[in-house]
Each structure stands twice: as structure tokens, then as C-alpha cells.
Amino acid sequence: MAARLDARWAFRWRTASVPDVDAPADPRSAWDLPAPGTMPRTADLEPLVTRVLAPNPSPMTLDGTNTYLVGAPGSGQAALVDPGPDDAGHLAAVESALAARGARCVAVLVTHHHGDHAEAALPWGARFDAQVAAAGASVAGDGGRVLEPGERLDLAGTSIDVVATPGHTSDHLAFRLESGAVLVGDHVLGRGTSVVTHPEGDVLAYLESLRRVHDLGPSALYCGHGPELTEDPGAVLDFYLAHRAYREHQVLAYLAGRPRTVEELVAAIYADVPRSLWPAAAQSTRAALAKLRAEARVGAEGERFRLA
What we know:
Elements: H1 2-16, E1 42-46, E2 49-53, E3 66-70, E4 77-81, H2 88-101, E5 104-109, H3 115-118, H4 121-128, E6 131-134, H5 137-140, E7 145-146, E8 152-155, E9 158-164, E10 173-177, E11 181-185, H6 203-215, E12 220-223, H7 233-257, E13 260-261, H8 262-269, H9 278-294, E14 298-301, E15 304-307
Parallel strand pairs: 4-5, 5-6, 6-7, 11-12
Antiparallel strand pairs: 1-2, 2-3, 3-4, 8-9, 9-10, 10-11, 13-15, 14-15
Helix pairs in contact: 1-7, 6-7, 8-9
């Protein structure tokens, strides 16, 4: 009995050493966003931008990958951002949207290397005779352009600023438009939160990237998946930062009781999340633990992690 009391008081003391963080409220919950599965296949978001939704819905891609056509009206040109899967039906929808804009594709821009964004980049670049541009040569291909953060692209009668947004992946980029809107790829999703993959993702870099996009004062966030966010983009970025702090608090709070494996942490923290998403949750948890270890707040004992 005494041993149990001692263990209980030790748990309470160590839990109390972890600062309390309230679960943040997602501002999008009060917005009039389209329900899952109801996004239109093609939509004109503003004079500069048309979105074409790829037919690859899933728990991770939401309604599907958003492909964007960016160009000044009347220019006769458009840059294609994140072509997505190399799917014949999606290609037909993109070509129809180009025709509706009276435009030809003059460049293919890619936010990051994941296949649901980049698979069609090289074959479609060849089809349109358009240069592929991305953060890495493996995506841009032979004759492609490797983009540098901070550079400005003059394309399709408009200018597009390249913004470094590593975190979800190390090669992630965003593109800021003249209108003030930012094409954020998987950095921010129209619904839910983005996964920081492990080991290629980096939570510290991701948080810095969120602040970098916030500092741009975006007029809209055009996401890689899910609906566009136009009502209060800054509030969504604030929520993303708060959500990361909350998940970190949960990790520390559960480790305050005893050392745990990643799988045990996921089962406790994501108990109300469908198990089909637990592998992605494990990646995010591993990335959070890597950050906490770098900060000397968490240590490891084999497969188990503990408070430092």
C-alpha cells in the first residue's frame, strides 16, 4: 500500500512539473466551409487562380490533391502548381481549366516531393513543354529549375514569391501571389492539421515556417488538400502553432507517469482518432520527441522515452 501511495504522489509531482496547456479551439469549426466530399472539381478562387481537384481522396489527402493554375487574366499563360497524381482524368480536367482561362501552361511548380503532389510533374512538364521547378533536382528533373527561397518568379503575367516552409518535409516550399494569397501545399490543410513526417520532417523547422507564413500576412491560404481558407488565415496559423504546443504538452504529461514507447503514446494521445490514422500520428509523435530530445527535455531508454 505504501509503495502505491509513493508512486501515486511521484506521478502527481512529475505531472505538475509539466505546464498546463489548454486544447486550442480550431477557428474553422465556425466557418462555412464545404463538407468533406463536396468540393467542386474546378473552382475559380480569384482572378489569378483556378483550382482543379484531383480524384485521389483518402484520409490523408482529404477530398484529393488541389492543383492550381496561376496567371494574370488575359495573359494567355498559366503556371501549374502541384500537378498531383499522373491521372488521365485529372489531366483532362486541368486541360479543360486551361482552355477556360484561354491559357497554356508555361511552368510546373511543385511544393514538395510527395507523390500526391509531384508524381505528374515531369510527364506533364513534357506534355506542356513547360519547365518543372521545385526545391530539389530530383523533382525538377533534367533541365528543370531548382528554386531558391526568397526568389521571385515572373511567370504568366504575374509574380510569384518562393517561400521556404520546411517542416512537413525538408524540401517544402510555399508560393506567395501578388494578391497576398499563399499556396501552402501540405504546410497547412483546409481541414485538420498537417503531419510532420519522421525522419524527414522537423518540428522546429515547421514551427519556424508557420511563423514565417504568418508574418507574410496572407490574404488567403490555398491548401494542398481541403478548402481554401480566406476568412481569417492568421487565426488558422495561430491555431496550428497552439495545436503543436498542445500535442507537445500531451507527450510530456504522459511521459511524466513512466517511460513509454511511441506506440503507447499514440494509443493514449490519439485514442479518439481512427486507428487508420495512427501510423501518421506515430510519425508526428516521433518528430515531436526528436524536438524534445534536441532540447534535452526528453531522453531515451531503448524503445522507450522518458522525461529528462
